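Box 3.1 A note on notation
Throughout this textbook, protein chains are presented in two layers. The first layer is the amino acid sequence; the second is a token string describing backbone geometry. Keep the layers aligned when reading.
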Amino acid sequence: MRKSGQATLLGLSAVLILITAAFAAVPQTINYQGYLKGSSGAPVNSATNMVFSLYSTTSGVRPVWGSGTVSITPANGIYSVELGKSPQPALGIAFNRPYWLGITAGTDPEMRPLQPLTSVPYALHAVESEIVPDGSITAAKLADSSVSAVKLADGSITAAKLDTAYVKKAGDTMTGVLALPVNGLAVGTNQLVVNNGNVGIGTTTTPARLSLAATSGFMADYGSSSTWGVLRFLEGPTVRSYLGYGDTGGFMVNSLADSSGFYAVTGGLHLTANVDATKGITVTPTGNIGVGTTAPAARMHLKGNSYPDSFMFLDTTAAAQDSGLRFLENGVTKSHLYWSTATQTLKLQGSGASGLDITTTGNIGIGTATPSAKFSVSGTGGFISDFASTSTWGILRFLEGATTRTYLGYGDTGGFLTNSTADSSGLRAVTGSLHLTANTDATRGITITSAGNAGMGTTTPAARFHLKGNSYPDSFIFLDTTAAAQDSGLRFLENGVTKSHLFWLSSAQTLALRGSGYLGLDIAANGNVGVGTTAPAEKMHVWGDFLRVEGGGSERAYIGGDGAGGDVQIGSMNAAITNVAMYNTATNTYMSVYLKNVHVMGGADLAEPFNTVDANKPEPGMVMAIDSNNPGQLLLAETAYDTKVAGIVSGANGISAGMTMSQEGTLASGSVPVALSGRVYAWADASYGAITPGDLLTTSDTPGHAMKVADHGRAQGAIIGKAMSKLSEGKGLVLVLVTLQ
């Protein structure tokens, strides 16, 4: 029933009961009474869910109180409710302003207009309380703890009513601003003094915003016998920061419980965000500064564990800005090491003169900021030269006295050479390759071709790394360790990302071929091979759910165990594959299977496939008979009590053959599976007699259909089996236990 869009009030619009702490007997609820009628105008008498809301404005937006759903049962449309009564929320609002009541009945919108709350008898008490007769408030009344509140109307207390000395009431609080005249506040003997905005504690001399007496000029905070704090900052009871003496006696500015912050102890000043002082900055009494060390050995000492801890970053606030180091002698610039954004090089130079430049590609230039090679020298005299003979042009030679011991330059063949002996061994470059060898035969060392291939034992490496040797050990790579119980191996990466490993796993004593951190192939020292296990117990040991073999037809064959059935499984992971074959590919023949027990899970009958001249006629469930004209073949049974009955075509009504037997290439093969034993559905005709479970069944004159045996004499040798379900009339499927007799 749809409720009307308004409520009609009876009597008073609402009874509002004001609450004060001084008059606990005053009710703390609002009694409201109204009239509710339906959309037809008839009064409502059935239980109705209603919601009452109080608003501080007539707009009806964001109520200041709500009752929640209240079940109301009007009597001839009239109902009353006590607002604020449990289990409704308490009326926790101050009734010192107008309020409007909104009412919602059932699923209707809130009624409009909102109903204003009006005063009631209890409110008269509040008006009376604004009148305070002379002598009502005495010092005794103010000191009486049982008087929890004294409410006075504006203007009730005049200056004539106040004691000119003071007004005292224990526990009073004040809101608003307390305006004091100059030097207007002094507590006790200079305990607290306010003077022109400055505050003094224990002193009348207030030169600063906060001044403390000289004899006790500190703020003290005591934490425990080992922690003396000067000032602590708390969030509730939790210490968040403090300034004071730490447990070790060091002066500290602290922001966390782990002692991070700024603190000083004997021998150093530490700034750290970690309990370990080496994780921050330390300044020693000698002026040395350490980052990552509490014992800096120089004016600036940075210490860390490799990159990036042991590096200093010189960054810029934007692109196209230089960064670097300047070296001075008594304030005079002598040299620089800096990144030049103009030339995009790292420069090492004197005070303004050109020097050494290193580009982002690693080229090094002397006298040039644009080296075109790995090492470039530019400028007048910008080369190192040495002339020995017409056939040997050296760039740099190293001599012991007058004897050449090694040189860097062009060899007799025109190749670039670093040579240390007279037999031309060393590092030399000829057209197409670079050779490093200690033998006149370049194949005895390392060769790098112009394509970037590196060869050991060959001058024509065919891959990035090509090792060539004459059997063991020349054609082997040794991956050794510095001690026992250490791994060694190869890591395979793809664009810097680790993808696989081939390594000796010392802990398992296996050669492991792994993905990036996962179990893979392990070969034990005894030759056992494990897949998914580091401890292979057999020559081939697979640990996991399945061993999978992918066939050319996507058969996805597997062998394994599912970990639940307690069995060994052979099957396929392809939903389209339903057969498992034991097949000899050498002879192209199927193989024999020897089993102790066979449990068939996918069918309920034993069938053999037969050929038939009625190839398009037999359907699952039809009764078949021996074909007298075609040995080994069957046809549809079409005669009642036919002693040539052979069986029933498998597959009717969703029950498949559990086992099929045949021999290809002989008469014992075919295309139509016929159930010779087991349970199978068969087509039957009940027009020859209603069929009930237990009835013997035989062939009928209806092609392919069975019927109930009525003439047991004729049925000898023509029985198909026993009915296991009933068929009262017409034609239909009957579950048959095939037992040919």
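Confidence is low (pLDDT under 50) at residues 1-24, 127-131, 380-392. The helical segments are 121-128, 139-143, 712-715.
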